Amino acid sequence: MNRGKMIFAQVMEFAPYHVFKYCVKRYNGDYKAKDFTCWRQFLCMTFGQLTHRESLSDTALCLKLHKNKHYHLGIGKPFHKSTISRANETRDWRVFRDFALKLIDQAKSM
């Protein structure tokens, strides 16, 4: 039995949550979001990038196959592909741009 954190959760510790929340608040990113927040969207899309998924369908399928590990990945409850697709269409992209710029600045200082 695994007693430590998953590698994905360890990598996500480098992404400061409070900075992300500031970016979300700046552009009102979670407006009318009931369950699938910008943070969950960020985690799902990051998971797809880090695991070399080729499409959104591939990412959603991979996450669906590991739905019992969503809590340990930090994603929470399972979701449908249409949920993340709709979030990608409607959410303000500037939230993620600003956060990426903050992460780049953090990496430069290291």
Describe the fold and architecture.
- It is a single chain.
- The chain is mainly α and 110 residues long.
- It has a domain at 58-100.
- Helix content is 64%, strand content 0%.
- The chain has 7 helices and no strands.
- The protein has helices at 7-12, 17-27, 38-50, 56-65, 70-73, 81-90, 94-109.
- Helix 2 (17-27) packs antiparallel against helix 7 (94-109) and helix 3 (38-50) crosses helix 4 (56-65).
- The radius of gyration is 14 Å and the shape is globular.
- The termini are far apart.
- The model has no long low-confidence stretch (mean pLDDT 90).
Strands, helices and their partners?
Layout: H1 7-12, H2 17-27, H3 38-50, H4 56-65, H5 70-73, H6 81-90, H7 94-109
Tags for this entry?
110 residues
Summarize the structure.
The protein contains seven helices and no strands. It is mainly α.
